[in-house]
Amino acid sequence: MLVRDWMSTDVITLDVADTMQHAINVFMEHRPPMMPVLEDGKLVGVITDRDLRRASPSDVTVLDMQHILYNLARLEVGAIMTRYPSTISIQATTDEAADLLMTKRISSAPVLDDQGNILGIISKNDLFKAMIMLTGLRHRGVQFGFILDDKPGSIKEVTDIIRSHGARLVSILSTHEKAPENSRFVYVRAFNIDREDMPNLMKELGAKAKLLYMVDHKEERREIYT
């Protein structure tokens, strides 16, 4: 999946010469994950709520208030923004975006085209939505976890069994990461399963493959096998 299909395109930007007070007002009204800061139309930094908190005084007295409001009206965004922000290409995939956010320990990043123009923002929430869609969780079906031999046809063997019981497949995810040698983890989600037929289905699957777990999201039932 590509970042362009999941990013937020309603981007609120600031100019490098905007005041901190203006930035605070915009954050309070719109609650964006971040705001890109532009100079002559090009990205030069970003402002997050953390930047604003860092620049704001923590202890305020009544006598200080007039002085603080004066400074807020004069302090420019360029003085408190995070410079040289991490960005991601419009052509990147969602897993590349997730890796960037995790590695840099940030919650969102501007999405740019090849000319450096801002086209959107990708955030952790956007990636969570993509993951939920990819796994098919909203169908409230049944997910099966397997350890399968890493050989051609091993996934088809278990999915054929699930289909033979009238189920529809929603998603199939597979990885070698942390799997035993010559094996792979496979996660299959399906719906339209007759719950009265579940014991027969589980028996057939158990005879063909090593089951890790079965989670029935509709019935709120979980069976962990290993």
Describe the structure.
The chain has seven helices and twelve strands. With 226 residues, the chain is α+β, with helices and mostly antiparallel strands. A five-stranded antiparallel β-sheet has the order 9-10-8-11-12, with helices on one face. It has a four-stranded mixed β-sheet with strand order 1-2-3-4. Strands 5-6-7 form a three-stranded mixed β-sheet. α6 runs antiparallel to α7.
In short, what is this structure?
The protein is built from 7 helices and 12 strands. The chain is an alpha+beta fold and 226 residues long.
User: In sequence order, what are the helices and strands, one letter per element?
Assistant: EHEEHHEEHEEHEHEEHEE
The class by helix and strand makeup works out as: alpha+beta
Task: Please count the helical segments.
Answer: 7
Major sheet summary line: 5 strands, antiparallel
| Relative helix content | 25-40%
Strand percentage, roughly?
25-35%
CA gyration radius, whole angstroms: 25 Å
Mean pLDDT: 89
Strand order of the largest sheet: 9-10-8-11-12
Number of strands: 12
Features:
226 residues, alpha+beta, 7 helices
Architecture blueprint of SSEs:
Layout: E1 14-15, H1 20-30, E2 35-39, E3 42-47, H2 49-55, H3 62-74, E4 82-83, E5 88-89, H4 94-104, E6 108-112, E7 118-123, H5 124-135, E8 142-149, H6 154-164, E9 168-175, E10 183-191, H7 198-208, E11 210-216, E12 221-224
Helix pairs in contact: 6-7
